[in-house]
Amino acid sequence: NAVLFNHLFIKYIRQQNCVLGDSLTVLRSPPYVTFQDGQWPISGEKVPDLVALTMGFSIREDLDWPGLAAGSLFQRPRANALIVVRGLDTLDFPKNISSYPLENPVPFTLDSVANTVHTLFADSTPVVLQLAPSEERLYMMGMANTVFEDLPVTLQQIRGRLSQDGSVLTSLPLISLSRNNEADLLFLSEVQVLYDISALLQKHKHLAKDPAPDLYSLELAGLEEIVRRYGTDSPQFADATRILTSALQKFADDVANVYANNAVVEVVTVKTFEAPLTRKSRSILQTTNEGSLYNLAYKYDYDYAVVFNIVLWLMIVLALAVIVISYNLWNMDPGYDSIIYRMTNQKIRLD
Fold it and tell me: Renin receptor-like C-terminal transmembrane spanning segment domain: from which residue to which, for each copy (predicted)?
């Protein structure tokens, strides 16, 4: 009876997790980037805006999500790393980290954030790495071309890396996973990419000293192939989940170590992406049923943060200048400090 009760309890917990759906988990964040405790859902299409806000960038539309508190005006993270894991709803991370439900998990990219980094820091050398090993999609910009020059990115290159010394095939306990199965090799290839990126970052710790923030975006689909091949109740899925959870935690620790705890690391877990049925667009003839009842404009402009800081500090500087000048004029001795009165006084004496 006890065994049956435990089995039913575990099944109930799994069902509850499935009800919660996909999730966004924050593995690491600096002290000045505060994520509130709560179960506030965030839409998948808003994840790029969230990444932009954590890096201190402005966004075109206000993100009405209470999970992210207002950050510091004088500090911004040195890097942001977002890992998308396809094939399951959630991973078994420690309970003391922030995790939020993910709604409307449509495919998204961080191209807008990468363009902002390139525009604002054109004179610097930021690291921008966007990689999806299973689909052999790669985009590198700035110092990434130098730092990750030797990173295996195609499936053929990664398979060759697995056969070398120090690969995950020899360092990780595979247990039920097989090196002769294509689905297992695809999953292990993506884990190998995580380990290789961590190793390259440890060799190039000077990246944290660059004034430009760095951006890392990885999409891992190997676990999705494990689910298709074996199912979610298989020992292969359990071992793959355990290996991936450990690899992601190690990756987050390494990124935080390189950037001296000035980096944000998020993990998005989605069972499957929902393809949008229609192309989302806005028209100037759109009805006012959505959003504001009176068709009001947005509260803030895209350049609001920039203009606000310019006006604020200019007013403070001018106020301080007026105070200092007024104080000096009030305490000035006309006969001693002013050259006009001094010359007039000397001329009277001569006459």
Answer: 286-351
